[in-house]
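re: that chain from earlier
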Amino acid sequence: MAALMGYYRLMRPTNMFICGFSVLCGGIIGGRPFTLLSEHIISSDSGEIPLRIARIVLAALSASIILASGNVLNDIMDVQTDRINAPKRPIPSGLVSVRAAAIFAFILSICGIFLAILISPNAVAVALTAVFLLAVYDIKLKGVPLAGNIIVSALGGLAFIYGGIAGDCLPESMLPAIFAFLYHLGREIIKDAADIRGDENAGIKTIATVHGVPAACRLASFILIILTVIVALPSITGYFGVMYTVYIALGVCPVLLYAAASLLSYQSESHLRNISLILKIDMPLGVVAVLVGFQGW
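^ sequence. v structure.
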């Protein structure tokens, strides 16, 4: 039972859920999302689930599983730093061996790609790209300052594009993809700054280890401020309606600005991890704001 729990934790279910939710949103935003869901899922007379919804659900499952494979590979490559930063993780704690974790990551990747085959050739291309980028990041680019952060952030945006491909609404999915890219980029830099002790011990080069934690925090703060401005633009230009404005004014922009300001003050590891956690908790609200915007409210 303990070993099974170790595999479960390696996949990082919370991140899988966020990824799958992002894909789902990317797939339904093109057709007034809440109306689409109510007509085809909630309504008792909707009959069989339409093919479009089935493709979106498959894409969400595929992306979540592929992300899980990347999470497992990440833990394999991070075993030395995790002995310091996270000694209770499944591999450094001995719950799962490196060999077993590698086999598990391979199986997850194959499963994710197989599900993409059931969607479309374009979906397969995205799935293969995601698997490739995750492998390149974990094996080669994780220790390259900023390059690794950009790869992870691009994958965060790709989740919405994956959903857009499955739901035949690729153009609409580009806007949340841009939001997601900037959000993940800022948060990844913060996470690296929080992990500076383990990264320095393992010789991993990040913005924080090369240029210092204050420099990394200033960069992350700048990115979050840029994201705040970009998030507000659909409201300012009238692209989205009043409800989108309410959501971002009350639940999104204040959190982004708080995080940006906090990064310029006290920068202990626990302080940085708290900022990262706050941003992670606030992300679903940002996704809901986008859904409300495309609903036309």
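The domain at 2-295 is CATH 1.10.600 (Farnesyl Diphosphate Synthase).
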